[in-house]
Amino acid sequence: MSHIRRMARRNAHTLAKTASYYLIHICVAATVAYAVTGNFWASLTLSLLEPTVQAGAFFFHEKAWERAARRRSAQANTLSSVPVVS
C-alpha cells in the first residue's frame, strides 16, 4: 500500500490531469453516444467504458513524454558540458 501512496504522490500532477481529462471525456462520449443511439443506458455504458481505457492510456502517454523530455534535457546538459577544442 505504501508503494501506491508513493507513486500517487510522485505523480500527483499527472494523476490530477488524467482525472480531469477522464471527466471531460465521459461527458463528451455520453453526448455523442446518446446522439448516435438515442438510448440513455447504452450511451452511459459506452461513455464509461471507452474513457476508462483512454484515461489509463493517457496516464502512460504522459509518463512517456515526461521521460523523453528528461532524456533530451540530460543530453543537452551533457553536450553543453563537453569542452570545445580549438
Key words describing this protein structure:
elongated; 0% strand; 86 residues
Report on the biggest sheet.
Answer: none
- Main structural class: mainly alpha
Helix share of residues? Answer: over 70%
Number of helices: 3
N to C succession of SSEs: HHH
Q: Report the principal-axis shape.
A: elongated
Query: If you compute it from the alpha carbons, what radius of gyration comes out, rounded to the nearest whole angstrom?
Result: 20 Å
- First-last Cα distance: 56 Å
Query: What percentage of amino acids are in beta strands?
Result: under 5%
The number of distinct β-strands equals: 0
Low-confidence stretches: none
Mean pLDDT: 87
- Total individual domains: 1
Structure notes:
- The chain is an all-alpha fold and 86 residues long.
- The chain has one domain.
- Helix content is 88%, strand content 0%.
- It is built from 3 helices and no strands.
- Helix 2 runs antiparallel to helix 3.
- It is elongated, with a radius of gyration of 20 Å.
- The relative contact order is 0.11.
- The mean pLDDT is 87.
Short account of what is shown:
It contains 3 helices and no strands.
Topology summary:
Blueprint: H1 2-10, H2 12-37, H3 40-80
